[in-house]
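Meet our chain:
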Amino acid sequence: MAAIPTQREGEPRAREVRGQAALPGSPLAPGSARALVRAALADAPEVTARLADDAMAVVSELVTNAVVHAGTDVQVDWRLEESGAFVVEVSDRHPSRAPRDALGGEGMYDTPEYGRGLRLVTTLAESWGVTYRAGAKTVWARLPPGGIGNADAPAPEAALGVAEDLAPQPHRVGGDRDWLGRGALSFLAEASDLLAGQLDENLVTALTGQLIVPRLADWCAVWLEDEASLRGGAGGGPDRVWHASENHIEELRCALEKEPPCPGEGLRSGPEPYPWPGHALGPQGADGTALAYRLIAGGRPLGTLVIGRCGLTRFPDEVTGLVEDLGRRVALAIGAARQYARQATISAVLQRGLLPGAVAEIPGVRSALVYEPCDKGGPSGDFYDLFPAGDGRWCFAVGDVQGKGPEAAVVIGLARPWLRLLAREGYRVADVLDRLNQLLLDDATEAADAAARALVAAGGRPVAPGDGPQTRFLSLLYGELTPHDGGVRCTLASAGHPLPLVLSPDGTVRTAARPQTLLGVVEDETYTSETLDLRPGDSLLCVTDGVTERRSGSRQFDDGDGLAHALSGCAGLGAELIAERIRRLVHDFGGGLPEDDLALLVLQAE
């Protein structure tokens, strides 16, 4: 390994930039690491484009190796030293499993690996190494100031030298000069960025074909394996087929359907020989060679990639290695897309279960609802309900849970059914809030106890950020409606929630409750309720903070009683038109899409 150079006299000193991130050992980790490091280097104007590109390639390779070969959570640390050198360290918790040897040390594996392993790192870094600690392993690399070839060669010649070192050998005379100019290094880095941003496995496979054909092979095909099935390999026809000549695609597909890949025992990515489908490729494709690569991520087989090239008896080693490296990135991208699809499905099911199928119709009351979650694919932190409670009573709720996603879903999953149960058991508004407050506190205590037991069982290992119990606060506006001759009696209470407003037919607006403490914060808190009569034409507006805290620069929508002013302009409108006008005003106020969940409920006495 090269010695670490000292700063030359008279050279400007770069300001130090550093950062770290703990990432799950999932297919999303390499893309997340690249995004974090790219953002950090963007704030350092002295970083050259070449150094930034090299840093992206090295970070991607080190994190990918850790995810694929260690399979544990990954810690990434980076820094830009005062000399301008960039240093990255990637740690995992599998110290017994060494990283892939840069130059093909096959002895540490049961079967040889034909990928480049850490050769990218060897080429780009002036020094790199592995540090073993108790329970952890760190692979580190140091890139010279300015990037590759900074000291000894002009930039174009140095970059071309690296590209020629890592690029596959040309298989057509003069046909790969553009490839050599661009470089396999650049290809892998750009392929990683392209694949990491895709959340649909069909799109990932489509991009795979475009990356491989015709640059690395004359044709290729991908079989995807169904995770729900018990079959040991890809069966039936390929999911996607590409050929440099579209005229051969259908014939090739038919031939490949008869020869599905049959992976051997174990999880080996390949390459493995594949029967040549010469009869499907015409006279010029009668002879050639084909290889199959198993696509594996997270210890699970996800599919098989097959590539073929006419007129050769074997692929050059550089091509087989490059395709194996690309296959690893394709597998990670497919794994990430499937993980995202699973999460999106779970989120959609959760969202449907956390909200009422329909709001109740109340005699003598018109209602209108606007509900717009910020994240269309995940559980929202806002929720609502409007339901009959028996004995001529109807109850309504508009709530907002701290946070979003599964933690918010847990709280809503507790709160909404308990609200209905307590209301139907005859508990009044203040009593319902008292009991719901205690329920949330008890649940948080149980979660903390469970986390403490897990910590003890893990031998005192510190809990990673986000793994421990989360504080479960809930702001809630809850009320009870009792229609009667001449109007509707409304009893309500606000627990840490934006206060409801009442609009009279003459345009007068007044608040309808007083502020009280969030639910799930104070033990033995006693809540109180207030009662008012909604006369015919009166409208009650209930909102979440996605309305009141909608921002436009440094201003919020409710600054200076902005919501009350907006509501006063709705005098004479029905419930649906009031809800739509407030929604439009909130959207227009910020000039862009809302950055928070938005919910509002209008109840108007007829």
Notes: Residues 14 and 602 are 58 Å apart (CA to CA). The chain has 14 helices and 23 strands. The radius of gyration is 31 Å. The longest helix spans residues 317-354.
